[in-house]
Amino acid sequence: MKKALALAVGLALLSAFVVGHVGSQAQATEKNIVEIAQEDGNFNSLVAALTATDLVDDLSGPGPFTVFAPTDEAFAKLDPAVLDDLLNNDTATLAQILLYHVVSGAVMSTDLSDGMTAETLQGESLSVSITGDEVRINDAMVVIADIQASNGVIHVIDTVLIPPEEPEPPAGDTIVDIAVASDDFDCLVQALTAAGLVDDLSGPGPFTVFAPTDEAFAALDPCVLKNLLKCDTETLTQILLYHVASGETMAGDLEQCMKITTLQGGKLTVQICGDNVFINNAKVVTADIQASNGVIHVIDTVLLPPAC
User: Fold this and answer.
1) 111 and 221 belong to one structural domain
2) Can you give the pLDDT at residue 41?
3) Which residues pair with 271 in a beta bridge?
4) In DSSP terms, which residues pair with 119 in a beta bridge?
5) Helices 233-241 and 186-194: crossing angle, nearest 10°?
6) Looking at residue 26, what is its pLDDT?
7) Exposure winner among 1, 37, 258, 274, fewest CB in 10 A?
8) Which of 8, 29, 6, 25 minimizes the C-alpha distance to 17?
9) Do 96 and 7 fall into the same domain?
10) Which of 140, 101, 136, 139 is closest to 4 using CA atoms?
11) Residues 280, 278: Cα–Cα separation, whole Å
12) What does the buried/exposed string (b/e) look like for 211-237 if buried means 16 or more CB atoms within 10 Å of the residue's CB?
C-alpha cells in the first residue's frame, strides 16, 4: 500500500497539478499509475513499497483504480525502524497498508462528498471529510487531486493511511480457562498439559470441543491412561485433537448423521435420538458452554480415533 501511495504521489507531482479542493480539473496521460510514480522524484518510498510487495504489476493493470498516494514526506513521518521492517521483513502487513490506499474504480474529486466512505482493496473503508477548501481522507489531507492516469486517478495525500487494527478477541474465559476452573475436567486439563495443547486451545480459535468429564476418563483402563500421560503423549495428542473441531458449532447446528471433521483429521458422527445427542458413542450431557474462543459440549465418554 505504501508503495502504491508513493506512486500516486509521484503522478500528482509529475503533473504539477496542485489543488486546494476536490473540484479540480482532471489531466489525462497515457502513462499508468505506476509509471507516473516511477518517473517522479517524490514517490521513491511508495515505489519501493510497491516493489517489495509485488504490487507493481497489479497497479499497472487495466483497473481502473483510485490511489490516495502519500509522498516521500508522508512516509518520512513513519518510524524509520518500523518502515524498514515492513519493507524487508513484514511485507504481508505492508501489502495490506498499501491496498488500504487503493479503491476500485476511478473516483474523481467531484465524486467525493462530506461523510462518504469508500471501500478499499484491503477490505476496510476510508472516510471523506470536507471542510471549506480542505479535503481529508481519514486524517490525511489531499494536497493534489485528480491526476489522471491511463488506468485510473491519483489523489496525493500528506500522510500514510494505516488500516484499523484487528479487533481484540472477545473478553472472557477461554476453553482452557473454563476447564481449569471446573471440578469436572481435571483429567482433561492434565492431558492437555501433557500433550502441550494448552496454548493452542487458549488461542483465538474459534474451536468446538467435545470435552470428556473426569468420569469419562475414569472409564478407561488406568494403565493405558497412565501410559498415555507419561510415555505416549503423541498418541494422547491425537486422541485429544479428535475431540476438537475448527469453528464454533452450536447444538442447534447439529443434524442427524452429520459428519464433523476434527483437528486430528478423523470425522465424528452425530446421532440424535429424541432429546439425546450422541457424538460417536458419547452422549452430550451439557451443550453450548460458551467460551471466548469457541464452545464446549460436555460428553460422558472419551472418543477414540479409529486408529487407536
Assistant:
1) no
2) 85
3) 278
4) 125
5) 120
6) 38
7) 274
8) 25
9) yes
10) 101
11) 6
12) bbbeebbeebeeeebeebbeeebebbb
| HEC letters along the chain | CHHHHHHHHHHHHHHCCCCCCCCCCCECCCCCHHHHHHHCCCCHHHHHHHHHCCCHHHHHCCCCEEEEEECHHHHHCCCHHHHHHHHHCCHHHHHHHHHCCEEECCCCHHHCCCCCEEEECCCCEEEEEEECCEEEECCEEEEEEEEEECCEEEEEECCCCCCCCCCCCCCCCCHHHHHHHCCCCHHHHHHHHHCCCCCHHHCCCCEEEEEECHHHHHCCCHHHHHHHHHCCHHHHHHHHHCCEEECCCCHHHCCCCCEEECCCCCEEEEEEECCEEEECCEEEEEEEEEECCEEEEEECCCCCCCCC
Does residue 274 share a domain with residue 128? no
Residues 251 and 134 in one domain: no
Hunting for cell 504490487 — which residue is that?
55
Q: How many domains does the chain have?
A: 2
- Residue 118 sits in the same domain as residue 55: yes
**Is residue 122 domain-shared with residue 222, that is, in the same domain?**
no
pTM of the model: 0.50
Q: Is residue 186 part of a domain?
A: yes
CATH number of domain containing 233 = 2.30.180.10
Domain that holds residue 204: 175-299
- Mean pLDDT, consecutive 10-residue stretches, the chain (308 aa), reads 37 36 44 91 92 93 94 94 92 94 94 93 93 93 93 94 71 88 94 94 94 95 91 93 95 94 94 94 95 96 86
Nearest 5°: CA angle at 163, between 157 and 166?
170
Give the model's pLDDT for residue 150: 93
Q: Residue 259 domain-assigned? A: yes
**pLDDT of res. 165:** 77
- Indicate if 121 and 189 belong to the same structural domain: no
